[in-house]
Design goal:
This protein has 9 helices and 20 strands. It is α+β, with helices and mostly antiparallel strands and 348 residues long. The model has no long low-confidence stretch (mean pLDDT 94).
Amino acid sequence: MILKEHVPLVPFTTFGVGGPARYFTEAANEADVRDAIDFARLHDLPLFVLGGGSNLVVSDDGFNGLVLKIAIRGIDESADREKRLFQAGAGEDWDSLVAHTIDRNCAGLECLSGIPGTVGATPVQNVGAYGQEVSDSITQVYALDLTSGAVRELMPEQCGFAYRSSVFNTTEKNRFIILGVRFALTPGGEPRLSYRDLQNYFAGKPQRPSLAGVRKAVREIRQGKGMLIVEGDQDCRSAGSFFKNPIVSEEKFRDVQALADKHRVRLPSFPADPGMVKIPAAWLVEQSGFTKGFTRGPVGISSRHSLAIVNRGGAKAADIVALKNEIQRAVFDQFGIELKPEPVFLGM
């Protein structure tokens, strides 16, 4: 294990804010991970596991502990009946894995193209987009259990997958360090086209799109919304969608619908669990006065996606948190709905 001190964390985040880590190390294998855990315990330090930094807001004061960046690489393939299994190290770049599976003509991850970050981060939040979630394809999560010290092979039912959540960020938060993930995909399978943006993209085209065609479309749609990391694009200095889409009761939905009708605006919605309705957080944010391009000093709302808070240049973490709080208050005051942020807040 190579240990560094006082390492700036700004280069490791897409937001580009935050102070330094007291200690920092990268783990290329399980042994490195265990060495980092031992060091943190010996010195009574808090431990933070870092992936791609695309869903992270670091305090301006930094983190007075050990940041462990997972850099475990490698992709292994095998066959299992009608499925093709891809086992990837937690430090593999997520979009590169998606591209690899599509090159292998395997369906199941195509709609998750263009999402920044690493493989190991995807089960934590049950990453999803355009009608797919990683839990649709995950068969095993390999994780080091900090309680027992053993590497465990967790099946999907043990991961507690739900909308943007799992046991890894709820009931068992800070218990596991993910080392690798296995996905079961369908060779020659049809791409998923359940999401409206994709349906509109391919509307009127004579042939059903290929997996590669859907990947291309997803990346273009994401770029059009400022949700694809592109060097020099100011809207990319963000953590992507900052708030989760709230899932509310049908009764609460009717209350919001009444407000929308009063102001003669259409309220979009999506089905959720029985008796529940999902309302787009972006709609709530816009209706509360924070439209695309909104600016509050060095931070603001993306010019292409009202759900992305962006660093317009020179922002501090405190600026991002202040705007987050302002948006949450406005949405709650107007609709009685508490927006929950997606990013992890480190050192706050």
